[in-house]
Amino acid sequence: MSIALRDTIKDTVRHHLTKENGLAMGQCLTAVGWVGGTLPELYEEDGMVELSMADVAGGGFAVGAALAGRRPMYVIRYQGFNWFNAPMIINYAAKSKEIWGVPCPMMVRSIAMEGGIGPVAGSSHHALYYRMPGVKIVSPMTPYEYANMYLEFMDSDDVLYVSEHRGAYGNTEELPNIDYDIPDIVLFPISITRFAAVEAAKELEKEGYRVAVHHIVNIKPFQPSESDRNALMRARHGIVLDDDYVDGIAKSLAFDLCKGTASEMHVMGLKDKSAGFYPQVDNLPPSKDEIIAKIKEILK
Amino acid sequence: MEQNYKRETFKRASLCRNFENETYKQIQNKKLKLPVYLSAGQEYIAASIAQYVEELNILPDIFIQHRGHSTYLSFGGDPVGLVKELLGKKDGCANGMGGSASIQCREKQIYGHDGLMGSHVPISTGMCYGNKKLTLCFTGDAAGEEDYSLTAIGWASTKNLPIWYIVEDNNLSILTEKKVRRNWELQDVAQSMNVSASGLPDDPLMIWNFIESHNMEKPMLLNVATNRLFWHAGAGIDDPHTFDRHKIYIDKFGTDIVKEAEQRVKEAWSKCLSH
Lengths: 300, 275
Fold this sequence. Notes:
The complex is a heterodimer. Chain A is an alpha/beta fold. Helix content of chain A is 39%, strand content 18%. Chain A has 12 helices and 11 strands. In chain A, helix 9 (193-206) packs across helix 12 (288-299). By secondary structure, chain B is α/β, with parallel strands linked by helices. In chain B, strand 7 (196-201), helix 9 and strand 8 (220-225) form a beta-alpha-beta unit. In chain B, helix 1 runs parallel beside helix 11 (256-273), helix 4 crosses helix 11 and helix 5 (120-131) runs parallel beside helix 6 (147-159). Chain B has 11 helices and 8 strands. The interface between A and B is medium-sized, with 32 and 31 residues.
């Protein structure tokens, strides 16, 4: 039987708390739903720590627990809440090793969702961390990617921002790259846009387009592979797709991919506008149809 | 025992005062060009608590902010490492990156500060939660106003953590007095959160007595009124008539201890400036 991403996350958290003396910290963890079913039914005596509702201080508590060697998984239920939660994580935990030689390893489980939840709670906000030194950013969307990410976290002493998306919690499939000998265009999707990118590629294949998809899991540091570069050099066109605003990570990664490949790079992501609560005023990541339209416009 | 405690506290405070006086001169001599936050006038707080903790043979985790030279020195931080840090050397106590405001001492479990005022209050609270060891958080009357500082005190109370918040209350944020900024006291807020708390002058014996009456396994907040003798940053004097407890202690214990501290400080500076 296939295992969904949410179950992998739940098992990972259970292992962390019961086998590694780790902590999970956050607000309303043990409430109805257990954070989208990603937490095991454990309590404070097991290391599942309910914090007060003070977001700024909560980030500081997690940083302190990291200094104590507890490798906290700090759960932020909506990525936009990082506007309050991030200050001490990125200004203390992320800098501690470089300034003082004192590692402060912690994992920020930052969760995105969208659709009718307004200007703060919607979408991914990993770009908030991206510009700061000392942070690694990863966005696993599959069970294997999540399990692998955890092993790497436990082998390192870094601050790791894990950009999760509720839309992927039910996913049971791995997402391999889609390649062609000579693609027409290469998509480099991040987070939830990976699913729409794959759908778009499959649909366009029926029309004769060869749309390669190279998934981005490790956002920072971002090191394009030889395969990424070769595909781009053959296609000459690429799009970076993000679930965050395009004026951030998407354009930065597009720049990295453009270097040395002489490719024309494009970006798609959240539009430069505030999201309202109703469908007609929402601000959503690029859909399959929008990606298809963009590809056709580029290739016409 | 009372006399011995006072004398030992005086020794620590003398080291701090001489260090700051010498640093003051080095700033004036342009040997130090970056912002330096001198703690002269406030040293009896850290000295008193360091002496108390040492007599209990406890090695707590300690968190400090800017103006932390006296805390670093009182708890046994190496003066040479501090001088090197002020000079920006790689073998300074914060690897030549922290400057005056972000010093640390790993051997004495003194943790550096990131520059966000009061951030160390929740961070120290989180560390105390993580290891349940005695934790000392030295903060200021301005940093204590940060919303996250207040929340941290509340969470320490909720979780019943063995953490002491020591507020070095010099009544000033740069030069803005406390009465301009607020009409409440930190010890009252802490008490309302069921934290053992008091407001005291920087009298070592009063500090000792309060701490001794406190259950060490629970959180505590001590708001200690003190005086900053020098400018907020750099070498200068705002008010030459500011009360100085050190003068009282010199009258009481004489100058031998002061001279000994002065010699130690001069040697530290000399050693660093000659390389």
